[in-house]
Amino acid sequence: MSLSSSFRDFSLAELFQLVDQGRKSGCLTVCTLPSAEVADSKTHYYYIWFREGRIVAAAHRLDGKGLVSKLTERGWLNQHSQGKLSPPASTGKPLGLNLKTEGVLTSEQLNLLFASQLYQVRDLFEIYKGIFKLDSKAALPWNEMTGLTLGALEVALMALRALKNWQVLADVIPEPDCGVQSLTNIPQMRLHAFEQQVWERASGISLEAIALQMNEPTIKVQQAAFRLRLAGLVEEVPLLTSMPVGSQTATILKPVQSQIGISFLQNLVGFLRSKA
Description:
Blueprint: E1 2-6, H1 12-21, E2 26-32, E3 44-51, E4 54-59, H2 66-73, H3 79-84, H4 88-91, H5 95-101, H6 107-124, E5 130-135, E6 150-151, H7 152-162, E7 179-182, H8 193-201, E8 203-206, H9 207-214, H10 218-230, E9 234-237, E10 239-245, E11 248-254, H11 262-273
Antiparallel strand pairs: 1-5, 2-3, 2-5, 3-4, 4-6, 7-8, 7-9, 10-11
């Protein structure tokens, strides 16, 4: 089964959260759309492969030669070495591991290759105009795999910490007057110091109040809260507010609003029910 939508309906960060928590496998195709604000902008395609919620490879092509191209550019693989290797698909092993077994690559070189693939993924978080399709039936790309993997959620958090243009997530980050509440006593993943401080103060109060306590810009706290929400460490909660009604004061709850369209939600439910 496949899941498709626009980044205006669902952010890449939230999609990675879905893949990680659902331990999904398959290929994510990302298509960037031309922007009227950028001269000579064109449509580009990128591909990310997952296995049980973890990223195993990324490339900007589907001919199976992305990793070999990187190796050739770095001078780590020549035609003679290529001819001696067994096809990865026949061995059921990633190309990177085959090369290491043959003594062509070292562990450090494999790390650098996988890091370069993750760098391509990080850049995709800057996309505002684009569409995606996640195909859970896609086969693993043995020729593009180094043999290293990393959880989709961990990759998303790394990308968000380095994100420069938060305008692309303006519709999904929590509002300044949104209340947040911690969901666990001990985080299961390593947090940055700033995220830790926000998490410790998430006791049902607003993000504005947390920013005031920390003497930090509210937008910075909003961004940290979004990352913590993706990690499952906080949740948005309604705030109790008071407003005068005649001679009395009425207490009302400010609701938490969703920005996701109904059609996408229906598609999402079907995808979650499908097998990885």
